[in-house]
């Protein structure tokens, strides 16, 4: 006897959660679009973003992986974006999401207004595993908090009255190594020893909640003898690179991120320190005096940050040579 074919069971489609956040900014849409389109600046511009690494770029499409603070923890995912400079629209979709999120997509839209301002619209669509309402509520709460921080950062940076390219800038220092790059990497990774080994570091507290993710709180002594405290999130990928983002910055900075890289080149092993900073114009006269300019602040930061990171690289090089 022939058995009738089983009727396929259709599973219910997961609930798609939607959110939209907006802000109106006194800046042209082109400048705001450019800030969002360049993800290499995100760690210095957006408070939650810790690090971004490109995986592929072709035409207007790009893929990258990103680490960001979500509900007090460092989350990691991969995303694909399509850039449309004509419409001033950036769409995104996560290729790899962190549970309980099973999908996440959305877009940035920059609408020019009649009065010369711009409305920024940030949209998200997401689903969660098993349609768990508690998980959905947590993700919505995180999106509300992080979206507000990101939109606020765009507004604050664009409304300073200074060109964005003069406020956000990067610089790099490279040092040749006489020892192995891996040993120099280890010196930078094990930052809990820095107070004993680095003259510009007075105090360090390092915690590592999971392998490769660190929180570093550090008291740094500046050239004039004063001390400031910074707190950074660090992503470590042995033995090639360590990326960091300062959650607590000195008065002259609104954002600071960086990366230590260690590589073997045809000329030999090298270590490199890269900084990307966003200047806070409101702190210039307070820190540097009443006659100081943005150019003075840029020069001061280039010298102070570069001097400290070069000192760290030299000690890392000495440690590698001894090893």
Could you explain how this protein is built, in words?
The protein is an alpha+beta fold and 323 residues long. The chain is built from 8 helices and 14 strands. It folds into 2 domains: 17-159, Alpha-D-Glucose-1,6-Bisphosphate, Chain A, domain 4; 168-322, START domain (Alpha-D-Glucose-1,6-Bisphosphate, Chain A, domain 4), CATH 3.30.530.20. The protein is 28% helix and 45% strand. Helix 5 (181-189) crosses helix 8.
* CATH C-level category of the largest domain: Alpha Beta
**What proportion strand?**
35-45%
* H/I helix tally: 8
Output the CATH topology of the largest domain. Answer: Alpha-D-Glucose-1,6-Bisphosphate, Chain A, domain 4
The CATH H-level homologous superfamily of the largest domain: START domain
- Distance N terminus to C terminus? 78 Å
The overall number of domains is: 2
Number of strands: 14
> Any guess at the CATH architecture of the largest domain?
2-Layer Sandwich
Could you give the order of strands across the largest sheet?
A: 1-7-6-5-4-3-2
Low-confidence stretches: none
SS class: alpha+beta
Largest sheet: 7 strands, antiparallel
Helix content: 25-40%
Mean pLDDT: 93
Shape: globular
Order of helices and strands: EHHEEEEEEHHEHHEEEEEEHH
State Rg: 23 Å
């Amino acid at each position: 006897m022939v058995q009738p074919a089983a009727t396929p069971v259709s599973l219910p489609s997961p609930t798609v959660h939607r959110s939209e956040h907006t802000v109106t900014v006194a800046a042209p849409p082109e400048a705001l679009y450019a800030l969002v389109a360049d993800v290499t600046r995100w760690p210095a511009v957006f408070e939650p973003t810790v690090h971004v690494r490109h995986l592929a770029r072709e035409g207007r499409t790009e893929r990258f992986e990103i680490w960001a603070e979500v509900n007090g923890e460092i989350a990691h995912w991969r995303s694909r974006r399509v850039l449309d400079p004509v419409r001033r629209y950036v769409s995104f979709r996560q290729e790899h999401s962190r549970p309980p999120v099973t999908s996440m997509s959305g877009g940035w839209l920059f609408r020019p207004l009649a009065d010369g301002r711009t409305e920024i619209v940030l949209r998200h669509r997401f689903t969660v595993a098993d349609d768990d309402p508690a998980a959905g509520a947590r993700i919505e709460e995180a999106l509300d908090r992080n979206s507000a921080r990101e939109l606020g950062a765009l507004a604050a940076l664009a409304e300073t009255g200074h060109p964005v390219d003069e406020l956000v800038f990067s610089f790099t220092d490279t040092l040749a190594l006489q020892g192995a790059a891996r040993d120099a990497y280890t010196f930078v990774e094990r930052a809990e020893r820095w107070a004993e080994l680095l003259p510009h570091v007075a105090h360090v507290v390092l915690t590592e909640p999971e392998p490769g993710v660190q929180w570093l709180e550090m008291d740094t002594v500046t050239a004039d003898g004063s001390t400031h405290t910074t707190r950074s999130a660090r992503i470590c990928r042995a033995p090639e690179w360590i990326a960091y983002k300062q959650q607590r910055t000195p008065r002259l900075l609104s954002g600071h991120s960086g990366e230590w890289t260690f590589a073997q080149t045809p000329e030999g092993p090298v270590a490199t320190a890269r900084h990307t900073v966003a200047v806070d114009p409101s702190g210039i006269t307070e820190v540097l005096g009443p006659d100081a300019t943005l150019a003075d602040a840029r020069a001061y930061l280039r010298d102070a940050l570069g001097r400290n990171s070069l000192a760290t690289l030299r000690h890392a090089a000495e440690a590698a040579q001894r090893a």
